[in-house]
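Note to self: the last two entries modelled the partners one at a time, which told us nothing about the interface. This time every component goes in together.
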Amino acid sequence: MHELLIIAGVLLIVLNIAAGLIYVERRLLALWQDRYGPNRVGPFGLGQVIADMVKIFFKEDWIPPFSDKAVFVIAPGILVATLLLTFAVVPFAPGFNVFDSNIALLFFLGNSSLGVYSIVLGGWASNNKYSLLGAMRASAQMLTYEVFMGLSLMGVVMMADSFNLTGIVEAQRHGWFIFPQFVGFVIFLIAGIAETHRVPFDIPEAEGELVAGFHSEYSGMKFGMFFVGEYMGVTLVSCLITILFFGGWLGPAFLPPVVWFFLKTGVFICFFILLRASLPRPRYDQLMSLGWKILLPLTLINILVTGAVLIYLQ
Amino acid sequence: MNTFFYIAAAVALISTGLAISGRNAIHALLFLIVSLLAISVIFYILGAPFIAAMEIIIYAGAVMVLFIFVIMMLNVGMESEKESRWLKPGMWILPSLLALILLVNFVFMLNKMSHQNIPGRIIEPKEVGISLFSTYVLGVEIAGMLLLAGIVGAYHLGKQKKKVLHRFLKQEEIEQPGNTEG
Amino acid sequence: MVREDFICLTPLMIIAGAPVLMMLVVAVIRSYKVIYGLSLSGFILAFLSIFFLLPVIPHATGQLFIFDGFTILFFVIIILACLLITILSDGYLVYQESEKEEYFIILYTSALGALVLAAASNFVTLFLGLEMLSISLYVLIAYRRSRDNSIEAAVKYLILASGASGFLLFGMGLIYVDTGSLEFTKIVMALQSSGFSSPLLLTGFSMMVVGIGFKLALVPFHMWTPDVYHGAPVPVATFIATVSKGAVIAVLLRFFYAIEGFRNHNFILLITVVSILSMFIGNLLAIRQQNLKRILAYSSISNMGYLVITLLIGTKGGIDAAVFYIASYIITTIGAFGVITLLSDRDNEAEKLKSYTGLFWKRPWVAIVLTLTMLSLAGIPITSGFLAKFYVILEGLNAGLLVLVISLIINSVIGLYYYLRVVTILFSPPNDVKFPAISPAGRLVLFIVTLGILWLGIFPEWFFNLIARF
Amino acid sequence: MILLFLILILLAGGALAWITGKWSDLLPRVISLVALSLDLILLIAIYNGQSAAGNNSWWIDYRVDWIPTFGISLHLAIDGLSMLLLALTMFIGLVSVLISWKEIHEKTGFFHFNILWILSGISGVFLSMDLFLFYFFWELMLVPMYFLISIWGHENRIYASYKFFIYTQASGLLMFLSIIALYFIHGRSTGIYTFDYIQLLGTTMAPTVAFILMSGFLAAFLVKLPVVPFHNWLPDAHTEAPTAGSVILAGLLLKTGAYGLIRFVLPLFPEASVTFAPAGMILGVIGILYGAKLAFAQTDLKRLVAYTSVSHMGFVILGVYAFNEIAMQGVVVQMIAHALSTGALFILVGQLYERIHTRDMDRMGGLWKQVPVMGATGIIFAMASLGLPGLGNFIAEFLILAGTFQASILMTCLACAGLVAATIYSLRIVQKVFLGKEKTTWNISDLSVREKIISASLVITLVYLGMLPQQVIDTAKPSVLKSLNSIEQTRSQNTGKPTGEASIWCDEINTDGASAKYLKCKLW
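The predicted structure of the combined assembly is written out below.
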């Protein structure tokens, strides 16, 4: 019963944060770009989220006749499912997680690599050339960045001597990993943005070039899933940054651990939005060469150095 | 525990069979991915969580994406227009169902399973690493060379070259002027 | 890792280091001459390094490799064969329009695979070596993509070889389940206590036979051979026929003798059937071929049929016979393919039997080399092939394998027919096909091969002693 | 060492001939002549030295290790029989080189290389005292012979050369198997693993095993000889080969089979040979009659001559299995006489073919007018072939028949019928070719000086052999006795009762019951 409660709690929190982010992002963007943002529905435009949801739910759920229907339907589901599954291993506070896995980090990596399918398949199944282009870009981009997203975390793993997220957090009692693993942090951050294909790495959707990329043909709740999925991704990456580099729920005792956790996470979510507000989109080839030629070698060097130092210290 | 194994194994078998018999390349690949997921579950049951994760990250996550990528580029789905007519709900319900069974299976496992239930010993990732870099370090080196061979080969074969006509096409080309004259 | 480990691994390290070095050189400057020089010197260096191994053998490196006299012999055979193939490839690659450099890199990785196989004492190295060999070969077969049949051959090899690898792996898995180890020695120990009783084990071994049989092109798994030989560039076909088979034979012999498979009725039956089928089908199918490469392909099938007889002999003499046979077969085959390689030009390979009509009157020395190789394959005295067959027959009779020996003899006669066909064509009245001139290096190879065939055929004693010593 | 030189001179001469063939047609011919003459001189020297040294059974015995791992040695030895056959080899070799002087225009170097290598292979066979070495040379002579037929032969040469090669190789391999089996049987019983002939001689084995092993040897020798069921390759090979090839085939290659029987089969497997004797004799008689019948039916002159070989070789096997000295001596003389007479007939055919470019007897006739000298020699050779007294073949056939009579009267009678047939086919040659009506008007020249020399030398040797055979018989005697010795021992072990199927069989045939006394071998 306890477990079921936790599952329900996690689901509730995650979905709410994701939905709330729709509003938060628009407001924050507006703030940084010196405009109003949604402010008509309810006090401070807070009702906007509900209005949007109602709109999405009731919109015609149109499946294009030229599409590969089965795949078209499955695709958005995959995104949401993999993201939600990953949250199962995220420890929000000591004991406040669904499943304390010994390979939690690998579980995250595995799920994020499966998440690619949703975009690739969605773009392909739409049977539309812009969507296909988006899907191709997505698969190349995400494959590239997945490689060193995993590798960038290996420094942390080496230092914590565990794949278990709780263990990693506990290992930071005497110092956040952001300091020794700064390179790893930067790379993970970049890779995280690319994984969630947020601006500036939103090349798969790039509305200026590809209309809306892989989800051009989607509408209704299917589009909603992609939409919410993106925010869930942002939340997840922020959670992981918090856990891996910023000591997770650890913090001075005047606040409960959960609060510390969400505070830190919130900062990173805002950072994601700040990026969107401020950075232009790079070209596709620039993105790829940045990945393969700079970030990958950097990651490998990071692993080598970390290993060497650890062995030296032993 | 055995039940979980049989369920996963059945899913793996069925989806592999469907992958082989599938007419649509992308659908076949999707079945293959499901099969890989099922195999990963089996690994997990056997007490090899690291391999289970790797199975997903590398095979399901990377290799298969590349496959799909290539197939999308090859435009194998030319006939999907025709095939889409055959695509009744019955077709797509099956993969969803299989995946669903797997999911349920997995979730139950996560809850019901404590480590004592696992037959045999659980192999921690650390152990895997140690054995790879002590006993089997030469094997790892050799595997590295193996990949080198693969990379160099792929580079060579994949490199764009001047267009070469297939021998059948060559013949057609020769015949062409004759036809126009006629 | 102790000092001896490193000494023993030197040849492997040189063969592994050379391609990396080559890649670095290619990254800096793409010069064919440099790469070719590097690859030549790499093999020579590896060969010389074998002498350092002599004082430390026998020595086991970890659980993965065993370096004993048997390994050394095969190292020598493989490296020398690779050296000759490298020289042959040089002449052939002149016609490759661009990107000749990668060829040598991949040749090296495949050679490494072969060496790993020869030294393998563990399923891990067995499989890795085999895979390295296969993966390099996929690329090498398709190396000249513009040629007509090359892609077809590569795809055929790719698909069938992966299937075979799958069988091999599954077989190993089953054996592991039953014996609990991947090491040959431990498997042997487990077998000694339990015997071959378990059906799981027998299934496993049978599946391994499928995998290995594919590599050796033994009969039920031989379908790929002619097409792949036909489609592959000639030096690559040479490699498949010689080094690849030699290495697989090495590991097969080691494993089979370790588990004493020759005592088990099932194995005796299995090997006997496979061997007889290979001999007959290989030889009978060769008779009608019009393409020299295909003839050699079928001939290799039957030769492997002869060779697996040695598995059932079960004495030191059996191993010695196998080593002598494979050495003789490799040098002969390099000679035969070498002639094809050296006579190939930009547009077509000299593979059609017809184009050889009357070669003797135009290019007597080349024709003599080819004749000599054919006679050696047929097992006519003064060539090494004769003594090799003699050795196998001798040991086979000693072990009482009467059926196999007699079918070997029947097949020698059948084989004679198509080898003679080639020879006859060489000596027929000449036609007007023009062949390119042969480079000095090519002549050197042919000279070495001829010398080898005759030397092994007339003065084999030193080689017998060498084999017996290790 | 001198024995090794005999072979090496030929090998080196062959290589030299080939190399010099590039520059001149004449050089290879001269080199071949020189090499062969050198060998002949060496042989004469050996013979003379032997006469002085006394009558040891092996005149010279040369032995060095070759592949000691398997107990293989380079063991060469010479005795009377080998001496005769080697002298014959060199003589026939010289003749073949001479007759090819004009016939072979192209690729002379390679041609002479082949001739000399065949001859060296044959010499090796006659000299080897090591079974492995014996097989080595046995196979070595095939390859150049194959080239000889397939390159310089007539229209159907490819087919003929394949047939020749595959027949002999297949049967040779069976012998090889027997050799290896013998090696193991000897090795296991004595602990000494060796291929040495002299050591293997006393090997004891079960009768069935001995019989099987003997069959392996027989396969090779009977095919080479050839004995009737296995004679199929011979007419093709002989017909399609160039003249020199036919001469060497008929004159020498067939003799290796007979030599093998005398040297190896009888001493190595005495008991099995006794068992096989009746069958052997029957095969011989069948060969004589069937060969003669086929010869008579031919229209192709060369093919006719080829079939006469089958018939003549029937006498050889008949004589060998009569198991007495008279017959055996006859066999030796027959080998030489047949080589000379049949070789001469092939030469005649070759000369005719050079002139009229056909071998079809129906198109010949009445040639005597144009070529009287050729006609005269032709008649002499035909007479030799039919066994006219005064020529070598008569002595040979008489001795064989006399010897066989002691073993089986019926066989002798049937063999005599063969003589009649021989008369018919030999006379038919003379009749159809030289006498009778002229069917086509040929305008041809008579024998040249070179050809006259060849023919004359052949005629002289034939007459010498016919008139004064004693020297040959004396030379061969120790070897013949050696070969019969083991048979003799086998028989004497079983004295008292007529054991051995041979004698039982003889009893059945000879109903007068007088045969028993013939079983005792008498010395002549």
